[in-house]
Amino acid sequence: MANQVDMLYIYLLTVAGVMTTLIFVAVTVLAIKYRRRPGQEAHQIEGSTILELAWSIIPFFVMLTFFVWGAVLFFQERTPPANATEVYVVAKQWMWKIEHMEGQREINELHVPTGENIKLIMTSQDVIHSFYVPAFRLKQDVLPGRYTTLWFNATVPGRYHLFCAEYCGTMHSGMGGDIVVMEPAEYAKWMASGASAPLQDTGKELFAALGCSTCHRAGDVQGRGPNLVGLYNKQVQLEDGRNVTADDDYLRESILNPTAKIVNGFKPIMPTFQGIVSEEQLNALVAYIKSLSQPPPGTAGLQYQPVTSPGQTQNTQVQ
Amino acid sequence: MASTVIPATPAPTTNYLNNGHSLKSWLLTTDHKRIAMLYLLSVTAFFFLGGFFAMLIRLELLTPEGDLMQADTYNKVFTMHGMIMVFFFLIPVVPAVLGNFLVPLMVGAKDLAFPRINLLSWYLYVIAGALFLHCMLNGGVDTGWTFYTPYSTVGSNTNVIEAGLAVFIAGFSSIFTGLNFIVTVHRMRAPGMTWDRLPLFIWANYATALIMILGTPVVAITIVLVAVERVFHLGIFDPALGGDPLLFQHLFWFYSHPAVYIMILPSMGVISELIACFARKRIFGYKQIALSSIAIAVIGFLVWAHHMFVAGISLYAAMIFSFLTFFVGVPSAVKVFNWTATLYKGSITYATPMLYAFGFIGLFTIGGLTGLFLATLGIDVHVTDTYFVVAHFHYVMVGGVLMGFLGGMHFWWPKISGRMYPEGWARLSALFVFVGFNLTFFPQFILGYVGMPRRYWQYPPEFQVLNVLSTAGSSVLAVGYLLPMIYFLWSLRYGPIATDNPWNAAGLEWKTTSPPPTFNFDETPVVTWEAYNYDEIPDVPLEVPVAR
Q: What does the DSSP assignment read for B323-335?
């Protein structure tokens, strides 16, 4: 992706360079050639419709090439491949908290393997931040109260700057870190070295601990709340007749603000969990609900077998 | 001298400057020229204050570590630099100083349509400025000039409301100026001054005035909403309260993008006047330049979300706004091409105002073309919120606006003061400004592309070389800005007396005395000629510039 951005950039630089040179040369040559000299008089010229049309239309078509190329690239940048490995990112003043599906957690560092599509699902627990990796030529603002996503496929192992690019207060310039790109084998080793419970397992425990499971029953049982098995990314009919897709943002909203979108046939009886669950717990819950729509882990979204050691599965104390 | 504001019959030697010397005769004046001078003093003061903060920023960034000041201090310094320069300098500078002085003169009117509202506009500006100074001395504000929520409503514990109130009030001063210009241009043109004979400076200010009265109320409302959320915790922008942080950005940029055109359009108007005069030509494509000002004002309202491509708006919204943004490029390019074409077969003198006009074309071309980079989605994702953006908007807003303002100040200084400025010093300072500006801001384009985010107090060491270059350039630039202030003041006393029309320029403002009498013209002028009729006027006198 970085190469493609650079290609477009070089194209723009070339066009802009030619334009700038043309104008500078024209101004310089005209200014010297028609400098005031004795006996010389200015010739009055009214203007020229053909010239005006030419220098309106031609630049516009040149600019259209900028638009099309830029938009195509943007479309790719903003459309994550379906098989991408998901990683949760929580931004707060002034650190980046990373949660891998396998349960590995990091602060201000994101380890990724080469050659893999990585999709970041990001949210902020305070103000707006922006996840910016100059080496990847990618940036996405991270907002409180919703998810934004960013995807990439790193090719060259190494350490790359991670910056916060949206001003967020005192230590905005200190809210940085590293993207550590590793060979897949090394990455697997790193992942195995300190793994805790997979995110969805944490979510499952929370689901029980918070009492969600009393209404949202599993299996074929219909509880007081909708059954969540197989829900993710399906259409849901609301009581006002609208249909919405049950994506990450929908799940998130339904936990924090349950009465915003009531599913047809259910009563608005669910209490809000705003202020009760942290952003990380929210991510775990969403990851769990998503896992209810997936075949057992390892076949779909999860590329790496979660390494669970029995002693670490009680890790619900997420800060 | 009597302190009456308006004498019944101005004697030939009486002009707007010596017509009353008391403080009261200035503070209660309704003369648009005196109000322009009041504005000149106050915007200059704010310019140097904002410049002081700029120097602090450049000094801090000399080294990668945050060593000159604390992080919080730095955040306040760049916020105050931005707010002062945008709201108290760039927006008012050309319309409220040169526009105020020249609009009635150029259309052949005695004053603006609402002289008292004009004075009120200056008082509102002063009240807003005083409030901002108070806010600054009480610890300042650290939200950045953009006031982004929810940082400004729940994150920051600085004087956000007071700063917002100052901007709110300053906004009304701008609305009043705009209102005055629109009514004056419609209702008070001299006989024969038809729309197609209006100087392009008037067209530009008219277009600006449209943006001022249509856009400014939006930012005023937005600031009120920020204050309401901050004080009463009503959920408007903060998602924790049920608000939407992006709503703020939409509202803010709906004004603040057109605000860029409030700054640049009047300067473009100045450049049209300068190029016509010093090339001795009717401007090439008068109609296209006039209409392109209106086009910029209109299209400028349709592109705001190009500031938000990575902010979380939808893919397709981003594409539409990117597409629309390229439309603004056309009228801006048209102006540059027409100015260049005006030089063809002219008789060009390199007086200081013309040097600034050349400088404007150079800086605006670079600023405009890099704007196209930012409008291109795939590139914007990488360079937005980096120093690339900082460089881009300084090229347009500072390079463009200040080149136009300084060019205009030199051009009309004989009319304003009745004195000539020293040409040699003026050319030298123009050179300092041009070189210093490029040295300061060109490295920042590179800095942005290699990835340095804006508003950084400390930065990785690999960015240092470019930052040192930039700081070095800024000290050259500072000299370039200080020099004119010194020699303009000097010329008030020692400059040679200016004739009524030292440049042999076209335009009604040159047909009255220098400085003009209080009511501008002894008798109402009747216009029987087209704009820029340089074929009927002798060339720039060779003895100009007088002072060396």
A: HHHHHHHHHHHHH
CA distance B417 to B497: 9
pLDDT digit string (tens) for A128-186? 999 999 999 999 999 998 999 999 999 999 999 999 999 999 999 999 999 999 999 99
Q: How far, in Å, are A23, A29, A50, B358, B365 from residue A26 at the CA level?
A: 5, 5, 19, 12, 13
Q: Taking Cα atoms as reference points, which of B81, B82, B104, B100 lies closest to residue B92?
A: B100
Asked if A269 reaches chain B (Cβ–Cβ under 8 Å), the answer is no
Tokens of A206: 């929370």
Of A224 and B236, more confident: B236
How high is the pLDDT of residue A306? Answer: 39
CA atoms within 13 A on the CB side of B482: 10
Residue B412: name the closest of B97, B202, B190 by CA.
B97
For residue A37, count CB atoms less than 10 angstroms from its CB and return exposed for 0-12, middle for 13-18, buried for 19 or more: exposed
Q: Which among A11, A15, A34 is the top mutation candidate for probing chain B, defined by the most B β-carbons within 10 Å of its own β-carbon? A: A34
A140 touches chain B (CB under 8 A): yes
Looking at domain A199-312, which of 3.10.450.50, 3.40.50.150, 3.40.50.880, 1.10.760.10 is its CATH number? 1.10.760.10
How many beta carbons lie within 10 A of that of residue B29, not counting itself?
23
How is chain A split into domains, by residue range? 1-19+57-79, 85-193, 199-312
Q: Cα(B464)–Cα(B471) distance, rounded to whole angstroms?
A: 10
Domain spans of chain B, in order of start = 37-536
For residue A74, the distance in angstroms to the closest alpha carbon of chain B comes to 5
For position A154, what pLDDT does the model report?
A: 94
Question: What topology does CATH give the domain B37-536?
Answer: Cytochrome C Oxidase; Chain A (1.20.210)
Nearest Cα residue to B510 out of B519, B518, B500 = B500
Residue A68 near chain B (CB below 8 Å): no
Say if residues B454 and B463 touch (Cβ distance below 8 Å): no
Q: Which residues in B lie closer than 8 A to residue A74 (C-beta atoms)?
A: 309, 315, 318-319, 322, 377-378, 381
Residue A138, C-beta contacts closer than 8 angstroms, at least 6 positions apart? A1, A77, A132, A150, A152, B381, B382
Mean pLDDT of A63-90: 94
Taking only residues 249 to 268 of chain A, the set having a beta carbon closer than 8 angstroms to any beta carbon of chain B reads: 257
Token pair of B535, please? Answer: 């074929």
Residue B344, token pair as written in the block: 């063809």
Q: For residue B348, give the chain A residue with the closest CA.
A: A35
Task: Enumerate the residues of chain B whose CB falls inside 8 A of the CB of residue A128.
Answer: 148, 150-151, 245, 311
CB contact under 8 A, A60 and B329: yes
A34/B24 Cα distance (integer angstroms): 50
**pLDDT tens sequence across A248-278:** 888 888 888 888 888 888 888 888 888 888 8
Task: State yes or no: pLDDT of B540 exceeds 80.
Answer: no
Please, which residues have CB within 8 angstroms of residue B507's CB and are 6 or more apart in sequence? B106, B199, B273, B531
Residues of chain B neighbouring A93 (CB-CB closer than 8 A): 155
What is the enclosing helix (H) or strand (E) of A179? strand A177-182
Domain boundaries A85-193, corresponding CATH code:
2.60.40.420
Torsion of CA A48, A51, A56, A62, to 10 degrees: 180
Indicate the range of A1-5, B257-261, B340-344 predicted with least confidence: A1-5
Which residues in B lie closer than 8 A to residue A59 (C-beta atoms)?
A: 329-330, 333
Instruction: Tell me how far apart the alpha carbons of residues B143 and B446 are, in angstroms, rounded to a whole number.
Output: 26
The pTM is what? Answer: 0.88
Cis-peptide into B515, omega within 30 deg: yes
